[in-house]
Amino acid sequence: MYTLDISLKTTLPGHQNPIFALAAGLDGSSIFSAGNDKGVVEWDLKTGTFKRIVSAVPASVYCLHLIPELSMLLVGMRNGELWCVDVAKQQLVKKLTVERGAVFAVQTLAEKREIVAIGEEGVAYVWSMDSFDLLYRFRVSSTTVRTIQPYPSAKQLVFGDKDGYIYLYDLADFKEIEKRKVHTMPVTALAVTDLHLYSGGRDAKLYQLQKKDLSEVRELTPHLFTVYSILPHPHLPVIATVSRDKSIKIWDSATLALLKNISLDRGYDSHRLSINTAIWHGDQLVTAGDDKLIKIWDVSLVSR
Q: For the whole model, what pTM was predicted?
């Protein structure tokens, strides 16, 4: 058996407005953040300090995604633009756009060398990672889609929409395989492991689902409000969730047993407002939200 240890390593102040997106940096010792500020920021995790503004942007940023082999950061914005920024050279390489509405989610399909983004209008756009040509455009939902998650096998992709539906697509031809209503309110987070798909929503629910047909394995109510991120640890058997209710919770990935509840109420120097986003950075959990702060947490398992 084991217990989970978590402690706050540092807090990074500097943003002037809520933070909506985080991404790992290029060199393993930095991260990127963005939100309602008019810039994408890089932070040095070794020193716990501001490093640079990577790119000024014209609108709020809702999603960030790094393509390490290209030194490229994808920046999805409220104005419908998806910027491709070379972070090594600190220059804008390409501006991609959707036809209408914000870009809420972006991912890459490494084996196909494609970029896929979706947003307010429920239409997915697929561009070549090499030429930036638009390869496919297809409607997933008649309403807003806020989250995309490729499967590790690189054979399927799931989307979650505002009406609580999850859609499973085949990556070979981008055809729908399965569609299932899982949540009573919008789907706000998706994550996948070797064994299961996990879904979180504005209904404050967390579902563990079968990957092949989206059928329910387990259901629980992990938070009081919206689940904004579900984060399987890179190598430990745990999953972290963050929420609008200002708490971070860490779960056993197999049983969904609660291992840790991190919040101000529990005596931690945690966030005072909604936690909007989080990423794992090695064994550190990085969280950020409406209080304009980024917090770096050291996480470890201790045998009993």
A: 0.96
